[in-house]
Amino acid sequence: MSPRGPIAEGREHYAPADRSAAIDVHAVLARRRQIAIVWSVEDVLYVRSDLSDDQAWEVLEHVRDCQDAVYGVCWETLQAAAEALYPEPGAAL
Predict the structure, then answer these.
(1) CB of 36 within 8 A of CB of 26?
(2) What angle (nearest 5°) sits at the alpha carbon of residue 74, between those of residues 54 and 58?
C-alpha cells in the first residue's frame, strides 16, 4: 500500500529502494495548481557568509515561521531574520 498525500504523489514513481531519488516538487505542486518559491541555506549564506550551515537553516526556519504574506520573502527578509537571530559582531544594539 502506498502512502497518500501531496508529497506521496511524487514518491509513487520510485520503487521502495529508490525513495532517495529526487522528487520534482514543482511538478507535484503544478498538478495541484500550487507554486512554491524555494530559498536555501546557500541564499542565507549569500547575505550572511559568517553564519554556519546550521545557523543559516535556523534563519530559514525562522523566516518560514514568521513570514508575512503581504511582504513575502526576499533578500532583505533573509538579512533581517539573520540579524534578529545572529546580530553581526560590532552591530549597534
Answers:
(1) yes
(2) 15
Spans of all domains in the chain:
1-36, 41-85
The pLDDT score that the predictor gives to residue 22 is 83
First and final CA of the chain: distance in angstroms? 56
State how far Cα 33 lies from the chain centre. 20
- Would the pTM count as exceeding 0.90? no
Backbone phi, then psi, for 70, in 5-degree steps?
-70, -40
Q: Distance of alpha carbon 20 from its chain centroid, rounded?
A: 19
CA 4 to centroid of chain Cα atoms: 23
pLDDT, tens digit (0-9, with 9 covering 90-100), for 40-83: 999 999 999 999 999 999 999 999 999 899 999 999 999 999 99
